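Lay summary. Proteins are chains of building blocks that fold into shapes, and those shapes determine what they do. In this project we predict the shape from the chain. Here is one chain we studied, written as its sequence of building blocks.
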Amino acid sequence: MTTRTRLTAIALAAITLATAACNTVEGAGEDLQSASREVKEEI
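And here is the predicted shape, written in a compact code that computers can read:
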């Protein structure tokens, strides 16, 4: 598995979890920011 494929899989998993876990629009924004930070750290 290439690095790009791995990062894409991580990002999709984070987005899926963030979407499932949030209860409000504000919560969704916070979850997406958190997922974005995690992906940036992996890069």
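What the prediction tells us: The chain has two helices and no strands.
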